[in-house]
């Protein structure tokens, strides 16, 4: 472990992201770019590889305002799902993963767009540092749920009925009010306790069935591989069986 905690975490994120991009990216690929601090390293490496190898036809689809900026800053070609509806690969971070490669996402309130991009990619590769590898979803994180602004009170009540033990409207840090997603919606963070891998898909569907819910941050069965970085710069790859 590095003497500086942040340095260690960043080394882990970089190790996972660089290794994943080196293993999966190539000329002509249509690439989904996720959101968050780990994806910063993925966009950086993709930009470096494109320059080094003279790749001119890599096309990237963002999942948020942040990732749109990352794509532009890396000198890559920006597209969207309307122009590029089929992607070869998507790289994204995660807040928690379980042993079956299910994930909780949405720490950056971008999970709706992230799921949309992931669902239209042949392969979703998740990039995490080892702290995200908790064994079971819900161990450290609540489930982020994007809701229509006019539905947050009723959706909150419905989530409690559906078994949530706590539901919190996510508040902004530098604004007096709630976090507003890139789609103009609010985010509820709903705790359901530890979620067994076998129950993730059912809970994902149950939450999305609540009127006013746009999408939730449970990603059941979407990831093909997870690259787990460590603070010493090493990494491990887990693949779906
Ligand atoms: O789901 C996300 C954003 O909505 C992020 O991918 C997730 O929060 C992980 O972020 P980080 O790489 O900063 O830990």
Automatic annotation (TrEMBL):
Keywords: Isomerase. One of its GO terms (molecular function) is ribose-5-phosphate isomerase activity. SUPFAM superfamilies: D-ribose-5-phosphate isomerase (RpiA), lid domain (SSF75445), NagB/RpiA/CoA transferase-like (SSF100950). Its EC number is 5.3.1.6. It comes from the Eukaryota. It holds the Pfam family Rib_5-P_isom_A. Pathway: Carbohydrate degradation; pentose phosphate pathway; D-ribose 5-phosphate from D-ribulose 5-phosphate (non-oxidative stage): step 1/1. Transmembrane segments: none annotated. One of its GO terms (biological process) is pentose-phosphate shunt, non-oxidative branch. One of its GO terms (cellular component) is cytoplasm. It catalyses: aldehydo-D-ribose 5-phosphate = D-ribulose 5-phosphate. It is an enzyme of class 5 (isomerase). HAMAP family: Rib_5P_isom_A (MF_00170). Belongs to the ribose 5-phosphate isomerase family. This is ribose-5-phosphate isomerase. The lineage of its organism: Eukaryota, Apusozoa, Apusomonadida, Apusomonadidae, Thecamonas.
């Amino acid at each position: 472990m590095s003497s500086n905690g942040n340095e260690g975490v960043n080394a882990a994120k970089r190790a996972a992201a660089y290794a994943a991009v080196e293993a999966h990216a190539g000329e002509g690929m249509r690439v989904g770019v996720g959101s968050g601090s780990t994806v910063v390293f993925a966009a950086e490496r993709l930009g470096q590889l494109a320059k080094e190898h003279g790749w001119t036809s890599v096309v990237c689809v963002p999942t948020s305002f942040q990732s749109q900026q990352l794509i532009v800053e890396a000198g890559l070609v920006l597209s969207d799902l309307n122009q590029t509806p089929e992607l070869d690969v998507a790289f994204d971070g995660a807040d928690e993963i379980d042993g079956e490669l299910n994930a909780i996402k949405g720490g950056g309130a971008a999970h709706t767009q992230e799921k949309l991009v992931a669902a239209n990619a042949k392969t979703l590769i998740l990039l995490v540092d080892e702290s995200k590898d908790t064994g079971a979803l819900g161990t450290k994180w609540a489930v982020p749920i994007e809701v229509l602004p006019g539905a947050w009170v009723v959706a909150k009540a419905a989530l409690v009925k559906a078994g949530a033990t706590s539901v919190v409207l996510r508040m902004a840090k530098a604004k007096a009010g709630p976090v507003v997603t890139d789609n103009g919606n609010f985010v509820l963070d709903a705790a359901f306790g530890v979620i067994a891998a076998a129950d993730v898909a059912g809970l994902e569907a149950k939450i999305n069935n609540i009127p006013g819910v746009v999408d939730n941050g449970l990603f059941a069965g979407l990831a093909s591989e997870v690259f787990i970085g460590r603070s010493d710069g090493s990494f491990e790859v887990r693949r779906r069986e």
